[in-house]
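Backbones bend. Shown next:

***
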Amino acid sequence: QQQGLSLDALVGIELRTGKTLSEQSILIKVTITVLIFMITFGSIGNILCVMTFAQQKSREIGCGYYLFVISIYNQLTLVILGLRFAYLLLTQTVVWNNKGRSLILCKCLDYGLTLLPNLSDWLSACVSVERTLAAVRGALFNKQVSIRTAKGLCVVLLIVLSAVTVPEIRTRQLIEDPRLGRYTWCVTKFSSEKLQAFKSFLSIAHLLGPFLINLFSTSILIVAIARQKLTVRKRNVNQSFTAMLREQTAHYKQLLITHTVLLILALPRLIISLGSLCIDTTWRNYVFLAGYFISFMPIVTTLFIFVIPAPLYRDELKQYLLCIRSVGIPN
């Protein structure tokens, strides 16, 4: 049976089994510190995002509803990530004889860590499509239909992705720690090559699908706005469509850069999901471990990806913070 990489395989070999946290290596202590920082920083940002998109003005069209759900999913991801690492520490530093409970936690936590980021990625693609439709249709864009569509798609995506992620439950198994038989690791084990190929296909599809939709939608958005502005500026006979297209590409280059950066950050998640459990050098283990945490950066930086760059959402956040501040100041 082929075994894949997991958090246990990356961190487990560095953990000193049966030892307290104070007796662990510097790498483990640094890893815990980084994880605590990521969860704390990301949780603050995600909660601010939830509060921002909970405002009625932020959800006048479907984009705001998508982003509201994305913020919730991202926060749940951070919570599960913290629980997953706590599970690893518990099973490696304490002899936990209840293997049945360990297996359930192993399957459920890894299922959540696979499902929720994928949901966020696909909903992010929905945001790009929504923005493009709003730009192309202009005054014909129906906000009420947009909101109903967003709610329906959120439910459909949740059902579909939950179903296609079920193999994650089947592939998660407990194996004995290669060093000491008393402890167990939660790893990915493929019972057949077909199952491994199917999981590889899904991992690639979840990575490239949202990216291509984002890229294609942004390209259409740039072309549509360029045509609209060229029509308005007809009196400027010296400006061609190509020049206008270049101008709008420069104006919206931040979106293109953001989509590319998100793809790069998600690559470690794909590589780890397709990787083998066998890591023959220490430095390679460090690289994989760093990549594992880097892949969660989009989850941690939701506030800076969706709220800060958008004037409408940024203003709503400011209003919310001012409201909180005014409530906290005594008369």
